From TrEMBL:
Organism: Gluconacetobacter asukensis
Highest classification ranks of the organism: Bacteria, Pseudomonadati, Pseudomonadota, Alphaproteobacteria, Acetobacterales
Presence of keyword Signal: yes
Signal sequence, renumbered to the chain: 1-20
Alphabetical keyword list: Signal
Source organism, top-level taxon: Bacteria
Protein name per the record: DUF1579 domain-containing protein
């Protein structure tokens, strides 16, 4: 109820709760992710299909978290639409590293560690659990308004990561 009242107060005051907030100090090394991004044509390793989409990454909760909201459109090998999905990911500092929780409504991935090159790159990795794959999601700033994205997976019991999808995003805001 307090959250609803706070949101209503912001709305009535004409202030959007998603207005630019500075990321907290624990997120400062990845502030380069914040913005609105459009995806060029990405590739799907297993099908040979392609992807396009949009992504918005904002600082939320007083800058304590980054929230990524995406829509991805999928195309088969011939370029015909084959589906699409929405996804979210919350990135937050915990302990001595960054964590991230991802969901597309059907799957959940808990990334419990991150390798950071402040201002340039971040790679999130999930934990190895018996019988489960390990996921790796990487972002690399290629130019001031271009971001490379790679998503890979190591099958259960393996330490070898195989590409799932790769692409490039261009900042629009």
């Amino acid at each position: 109820m307090r959250t609803q009242a706070a949101f209503l107060a912001l709305l009535l005051a004409g202030i959007s709760p998603t207005m630019a907030q500075a990321p907290a100090s624990g997120l400062s090394g990845i502030r380069f992710l914040v913005g609105t991004w459009n995806a060029g044509q990405g590739t799907l390793a297993d099908t040979g299909g392609t992807t396009t989409g949009q992504s918005t990454i904002t600082a939320e909760a007083g800058g304590a978290v980054l929230l990524r909201r995406d829509h991805t459109d999928l195309f088969d090998r011939a370029g015909k639409p084959s589906g699409g999905f929405d996804q979210i990911m919350m990135i937050y500092p915990e302990g001595s590293t960054l964590h991230a929780d991802y969901s597309d409504g059907r799957h959940v991935i808990h990334y419990d560690r991150a390798a950071i090159e402040p201002g340039h790159a971040v790679t999130f990795t999930s934990s190895a659990a018996p019988g489960q794959p390990v996921f790796r999601l990487g972002y690399r700033l290629l130019a001031p308004n271009r971001l490379g994205v790679s998503f890979s997976m190591a099958p259960p019991g393996s330490t070898i990561f195989r590409p799932v999808a790769d692409g490039t995003l261009s900042r629009t805001h």
